[in-house]
Amino acid sequence: MSWQYIYMEELLDIFESPFVVKVTKLILWILFIVFAIGFMRKLLKRRINDAAIRYKAQKGVEIFGYVLIVLMILLSFTVENHEDYTIIIGLFTAGITFTLQELILSIAGSFYIFLVRVYKPGDRIEINSIKGDVIDIDSIYTTLMEMGEWVSSDNYSGRIVKISNAFVFKGPIKNYSMDFPFVWDELNILITYGSDIEMAKKIVLDTASELLFDYTKNSLAKWKEMVARYYIENATLAPTIAVSLADNWIVLNLRYITDYKLRRVTKHNLYQEIERVISASNGKIALASATLQLLKIPELDVNLKK
What we know:
Blueprint: H1 3-15, H2 18-47, H3 51-75, H4 82-99, H5 101-116, E1 124-127, E2 130-137, E3 141-147, E4 156-164, E5 173-175, E6 182-191, H6 197-211, H7 213-229, E7 240-245, E8 250-259, H8 263-279
Antiparallel strand pairs: 1-2, 1-5, 2-3, 3-4, 6-8, 7-8
Helix pairs in contact: 2-3, 6-8
């Protein structure tokens, strides 16, 4: 009997082993489920036009497929002796928990995000000191369109940031749009001493009230829902102004409410309109600024006598 024949018999015995057959079937089923998930995602993308519904359906198919794979892996360890089965499952669980604890925490975080509605695609959040708009949530990562960093105000930096879903258990999550999609903002108007303060206050308040009328009106209903749902005191939604005195000017601090996505535009419109009205006040109000006056040194005539 040649060594080639013996080698083939040993190889056939390996493939006929129950363990190898079980593992092979498990791998084939996992591959089938993975391809089925991809096929269903593409099918839903073609059939569903609404972006929000399509996104939730695709994520539901993906999560269902992953849960099915995990169940199949666990069932593949089933043995006839229940005591051995308990030991195997315990060792397997301990090993998986230790080696893949961050991954498991991320997957648990994804379920927590969807079930508790911590945030959803389209929300503006700040998590792990990174601020941006949520553009995707999968079973492991939350994807953000980053804001800030080297650009000022609430502008996109252009970078896509992926954050582990495990961070929902590790620190605070600031949501700019959940339940109450408005934020309070402030701007300071500096006027000179000697300006008509009452007239300046009226101009600033009237301008803000006119430009922000829609925000104030729309936020009122949302705020009533907040007061009814949470233990929170009522707040003033209309624009307010406070006056303070500085060394070189008078500060008019305007506090107002605006849409969380339009802070920069709102501030620009307010500054522009307030400056226009103040400039038309015929000198009764003057905007202040830090100035530096240079004085010419008088000429000196020096005569030296021996």
